[in-house]
Structures are given as structure tokens and as C-alpha cells.
Write a structure and sequence with these properties.
Layout (H helix, E strand, L loop, with lengths): L5 E5 L2 E5 L7 E11 L2 E12 L3 E5 L6 H8 L6 E6 L2 E2 L6 H4 E4 L11 H12 L4 H9 L15 H13 L5 E5 L7 H16 L3 E5 L3 H7 L2 E6 L2 E7 H8 L3 E6 L2 H10 L4 E4 L2 E5 L3 H10 L4 E7 L3 H9 L12
Parallel strand pairs: 5-10, 5-11, 8-9, 9-10
Antiparallel strand pairs: 1-2, 3-4, 3-6, 6-7, 11-12, 13-15, 13-16, 14-15
């Protein structure tokens, strides 16, 4: 792989623009992993496109972390993952291909933050000047001389992100990178990753923060009990599994219900109103107006990622809890 040392300016990240092959994707094919008789990853296939953020979702114990380790060759198992058409191990400088954050505290606790990154830079043939650049990017410049053993989880995550960015990689693979970050840090991470992807790079990120993932990801891969449950765009995932509904509240609800029955429009009672799917507010508003019904409320309810996720993963949880009593 030939690299062009042309600097790309992205808010939040300082990257190197690379000459790319003709297949700019990460492609995971038939990944499998068993522990004894239990298959924790069962013939999983998907791809991570450049120019997009791909969210990786699943209940606890679904196999997300194991899948990421299989992709990177850090765990033995079946299948193969190709990075721009080649296995990661075939590259002489794999850190240029993919930046990794799998463990928040993957560092020597007494080595300073700067020295931790310096060692990684030397190992990867990266200019040492890049160390202070990434410390500044992740907001740890003032902590560069501190030993990360006493870092909070959020600070440890930032140091892990600095390490992932050190070689200005083509792709990022991040496992729960928002854990421990405060609201400002989460917002910074979201915008930085979106900007990174917009520069024709790829981001593959797992998270349990579904509301945050709905703002971040373009595509989504959902797994449960080691199998792929969904692999599509975020919009198609939400619309296809829950969709949007219209809620209407009128003075004479029973009269509106009869009108809807005549038009064979399905609805269900919700509170003192009606909830409908497959219709638009304009259609219901006109129906009420034509029949002289006073409308008290008429709104479109957009489905959430959480609702779609719970619908798709229902029954695939490894740890099914009960209500606290």
C-alpha cells in the first residue's frame, strides 16, 4: 500500500490522506468462534464502508468484542476479514490501516501518557512529533507527563483514542469508546468520528448508548447470540422494524374511530387519543376537518433506535433479567 503524506484537516482529528486501493472497505466474511460446545460467533459476515460510521450493536454477551478481535486477528477462529482487499497481517504497517481501541486501560500504569504513546510510535515507525499532536487532539496535553494508572475511565478512553489515532489510520475500530466520557466528551467524540468518516475514511464503533449511536451511525450491524440480526442503514433499520406513527386526539374520539374503520385504516387506542401507522398527519387532519371534528393534538412520532433495537433483539439476550420487586 502506498501512502501519500498529504495532510488532511478534519475538526477533532489530524489525518494523513492515503492513496487508496480500488476496494475501500473492511469486509468480514464467515467469522466464527467457539468456546467448547458454545458458538459465541456464528458465521458472521458484513462490511464497513468508507465515508460512513457503522454502528455495531447487540445485547451483553452477543459476541461484539469477540467479533472485533477476530477481525483484527487477535483471536483464533473461522473466517477472514479483508482490509481494502487484503488481510491485515499482510500489511507491513497495519497501524496505518486501522486504529484500534478495544481496552480503555491498555497501558503500563506507571509510564507517562507521552512515553506510552512514544513507545507505540517507535514500534510503528511514526514520527515522534505525532505524539504531542494526538495528545492535544484528545485533550490530554496538560496530562502528558502523568502516569495513566491514576487516570479516570474517561481520561483512559482519551489516551486509548490517542493511541488509535497515532498512525493516522485509514479505519478506526472502537469498542465502547464513549464509556466514562462526560457529555462534552461524548459530543466531541461524535462530531470527530463523523468528520473522520466524511473524509472518506471508515469507522466501526460499538456502543450500548443507543441514543448517542442514533446520532452518530450511518449504518448499523446488530448481532445477538453470535448471529447477525440486522445489517442495513440506520434509517432502514428503524423504519423497517418500528416505523413512524401518527397520534391524534380529537373531541369525539369514537366518531373518528368509526371514520377510520370505514376507510380501513388500522389504529389503536392510546390514552385519550388514537395511534395510527402507515398514514401522514395531513391525511388525518383533512379527515377530521371534513367531518367537523375539533383536533386537540396531531403529531408524528418518530421511532427511536432503542425501540427498533429491542424489537430485533427480543429473545436473543444472553442475560434475561426480571422486574425488580
Amino acid at each position: 500500500m502506498n501512502y501519500n503524506d498529504n495532510r488532511v484537516t478534519v475538526p477533532g482529528f489530524n489525518l494523513l490522506k492515503l492513496n487508496r486501493p480500488n476496494i475501500p472497505v473492511i469486509k468480514a466474511e464467515n467469522l466464527s468462534k467457539s468456546y467448547g460446545p458454545k458458538k459465541v460467533v456464528n458465521d458472521i459476515s458484513f462490511q464497513v464502508d468508507t465515508g460512513k460510521v457503522t454502528g455495531f450493536l447487540g445485547p451483553n454477551g452477543a459476541g461484539k468484542s469477540t467479533t472485533m478481535r477476530l477481525m483484527l486477528g487477535l483471536s483464533n477462529g473461522g473466517g477472514i476479514t479483508l482490509f481494502d482487499g487484503k488481510p491485515l497481517g499482510s500489511y507491513s504497517r497495519p497501524s496505518k490501516v486501522v486504529g484500534i481501541l478495544l481496552e480503555a486501560k491498555a497501558f503500563h500504569p506507571t509510564r507517562t501518557a507521552r512515553n506510552h504513546l512514544k513507545i507505540l510510535a517507535i514500534q510503528g515507525g511514526i514520527p515522534l512529533s505525532r505524539v504531542d499532536e494526538v495528545l492535544d487532539i484528545v485533550g490530554l496535553k496538560s496530562e502528558a507527563k502523568q502516569g495513566p494508572g491514576k487516570f479516570s475511565l474517561g481520561m483512559s478512553q482519551r489516551l486509548g483514542l490517542a493511541a488509535a489515532l497515532l498512525a493516522s489510520p485509514e479505519y478506526l475500530m472502537l469498542d465502547e469508546p464513549a464509556n466514562g466520557l462526560d457529555p462534552e466528551g461524548i459530543a466531541w467524540l461524535r462530531e470527530s468520528l463523523k468528520n473522520y468518516a466524511n473524509q472518506k475514511h471508515g469507522v466501526f464503533v460499538s456502543s450500548h448508548l443507543l441514543s448517542e449511536m442514533s446520532l452518530l451511525a450511518d449504518n448499523v450491524v446488530v448481532i445477538g447470540q453470535g448471529k447477525v440480526l440486522a445489517n442495513t442503514s440506520m434509517k432502514e433499520f428503524i423504519d423497517g422494524n418500528v416505523g413512524t406513527t401518527v397520534f391524534v386526539r380529537v373531541v369525539a374520539r369514537d366518531k373518528l374511530a368509526k371514520l377510520l374503520d370505514r376507510q380501513k385504516l388500522s389504529y389503536k387506542k392510546k390514552g385519550d387519543g388514537l395511534e395510527l401507522s402507515g398514514v401522514k398527519t395531513d391525511q388525518i387532519g383533512k379527515l377530521a376537518f371534513d367531518n367537523k371534528l375539533t383536533v386537540l393534538e396531531l403529531t408524528t412520532k418518530t421511532a427511536s433506535l432503542e425501540e427498533a433495537f429491542l424489537e430485533v433483539t427480543s429473545g436473543s439476550e444472553s442475560y434475561a433479567a426480571k422486574e425488580i420487586s
